[in-house]
Amino acid sequence: MSMSFDSRLRAQSNRAKDEGSVERILKATEILLQERGHEALTTTVIANAAGVNIATLYKYFPNRHSILIAIFKQNREVWLKAADRSVASVLDGADWRVTMEQILEFAARRRQDQPGGHALRLAVLTLPELRPFDREESLETAAFLSDFLTARGGLEPTRAMQVARVAVDIGNSVLDLALFNPSEDPAIWIAEAKAAVCQYLMPHLERNDAL
Amino acid sequence: MPLSYGNRMRAKPAHTKGEETAARILEATGILLQTQGYDALTTNRIAEAAGINIATLYRYHPNKQSILIAMSQRNRAGWLEASSRAMDAVLEGANWRETLEANIDFAAQRRINQPGGKAMRLAMRLSPDLQPFDREETEVTASFLAKLLVEQRAMDRTDADQVARVAVEIATSILDLSLFDRSPGDEVWVAEAKAAVTRYLAPHFEPQQTS
């Protein structure tokens, strides 16, 4: 597991033992998110579940939000790598539509399959402390797509970024419908997110083949 | 007009001084939102700007969220009426694409032209207290589009509901990009919202051309 969230950590010493505690705190938080949602989270509850002393927890994290941010950032690394790989594969000749559908599938799985993924996404949408990180991630994702639109669709960079931002926003907001409609099959929103994103991008990517 | 939503509005106060005070509160809130934003909004400031006693304000609203909901409700009626009319127009033969684009323009104008429209939209989007209220409006708007898809395109009720939810969600969240990013100008996001929604709906309205 990469530790790119170092900057958020309060202490760095005593690495092996510390990484063990940090790992345990993050794992416990994911499980608590899954079972009880973000509103029930407190640092005390997390420390208990992780089997670490509350003082130890505070050595690494000033509050519960910083723990959520650490989890969010850890996921983001994995996500951005996947997005990067997808763009590279399309530039190597893979079908853009298939690749776009795969990446949306991946985005959906982050929310669905990962312990607490659903609750974390909900927290990101409702907690002001987490929103800037989500925005940042959307912009980074859009940057990958934007490069691709410039390389493959011949869009001018400013325009490519606008189209990319819109496409990412469509993907996110349609996938998020699953959060607010828990009684319905999440597969519906995944299918619609794919349709909406691909239909939106098509004129930019198939201008020549359209004839 | 089939505004099933009408019965949810509270009875209007008699045309009296009370009604005038209620209107003054909303007006002052709009101006404060525009000039200072949601975070700076307090019931004290609103009372002061409206030229009324704080005790008077509390007779109408327990907190600032309640004032925002009242504001949103006030212009919601106009919006829902316009949306419902638009869908009826398509049923009577108007071009679906032009009509939906005009409706998206209407939605954009709500945010842009109304005093504090953008700040209010931002609050609706970010404040957990207001989000459910916002979702409710999205659902009512979607129900008009779903009705059109069922009656004109003979779509299955469940499918129509889902497609309509997705279309409204896409339009809303793309228009909302202007709240977070002022650089490209509102008209860019309005144009992209139209493009995204009409491309997403095209296979449903024009099945033979897009398959």
Structure overview:
The complex is a heterodimer of chains A (211) and B (211). Chain A is built from nine helices and no strands. Chain A is mainly alpha-helical and 211 residues long. Chain A has two domains: 4-64, Arc Repressor Mutant, subunit A, CATH 1.10.10.60; 75-205, Tetracycline Repressor, domain 2 (Orthogonal Bundle). The longest helix of chain A is centred in the middle third of the chain and has 28 residues, at 64-91. Residues 1-8 of chain A have low confidence and may be disordered. Chain B is an all-alpha fold and 211 residues long. Chain B has a single domain, classed as Tetracycline Repressor, domain 2. Chain B has ten helices and no strands. In chain B, α4 runs parallel beside α7 (131-153), α5 packs antiparallel against α9 and α8 packs antiparallel against α9. At the A-B interface, α8 and α9 of A face α8 and α9 of B.
**3D shape of chain B:** elongated
Which architecture of the largest domain in chain A would the CATH scheme give at its second level?
Orthogonal Bundle
CATH class of the largest domain in chain A: Mainly Alpha
Arithmetic mean pLDDT of chain A: 87
Q: How many domains of chain B, as an integer?
A: 1
Fourth-tier CATH superfamily name of the largest domain in chain A: Tetracycline Repressor, domain 2
Round the mean pLDDT of chain B to the nearest integer and report it: 87
Structural class by SSE content of chain A: mainly alpha
CATH domain fold name of chain B: Tetracycline Repressor, domain 2
CATH topology of the largest domain in chain A: Tetracycline Repressor, domain 2
What percentage of residues of chain A falls in helices of 4 or more residues? Answer: over 70%
| Contiguous uncertain segments of 5+ residues of chain A | 1-8
